[in-house]
Amino acid sequence: MRISMSLPKDLLNEFDEVLRDRGYQSRSKGIRDAIKDYIVRYQWMKEMEGERVGVIAVIYDHHYTGVMEDLADIQHAYREYISAVMHVHMTERHCLEVIVVRGDVEKIRELTEKMMRLKGVEHVRLISTSTGKDIEHEK
Ligand code: NI
Question: Which of 58, 78, 83, 87 can pair with 111 through a Cys bridge, CB separation 3.0 to 4.6 Å?
Fold first, then answer.
């Protein structure tokens, strides 16, 4: 199928640069691979079950009005699943937050998706390790 879409110029430039670096000959192929990757990542997140320990990395533009308050509200609502938060002032505009999470993966996923949907948040990645139980057994 043929589709047309609109994208911010900066985003497209950045995407083309990644495609060039990776040696892609066609932008369509790059877009197909990116969509597949997005779907796989979502399905992987959806299929996780039980207790997990993980890390959520969030990159956001702190100049974007309200984003810091929104992130704080969400994190406070999920505080029982958050073990620690590290904030790094990456650039003049961008902040990185590394959130260590522990508990029911369904809640962790909810937390991740809520932050993902915020305007001003540019990147969110959930990295989940083995279950909390497994980690205790390894001691
Ligand atoms: Ni900062």
Answer: 78
Residue 127 pLDDT class (50, 70, 90 cuts):
confident
**How many angstroms separate the alpha carbon of residue 68 from the centre of ligand 1?**
9
pLDDT at 138 over 60: no
Rounded to the nearest angstrom, the distance between the alpha carbon of 132 and the centre of ligand 1 is 30
The Å distance, Cα 124 to ligand 1 centre, comes to: 15
| Residues, beta carbon < 5 Å, ion ligand 1 | 89, 95
pTM, rounded to two decimals: 0.69
Domain boundaries, the chain: 9-44, 50-138
In 77-102, which positions are buried (b, 16+ CB within 10 angstroms) versus exposed (e)? Answer: ebeebbeebeeeeeeeeebebebebb
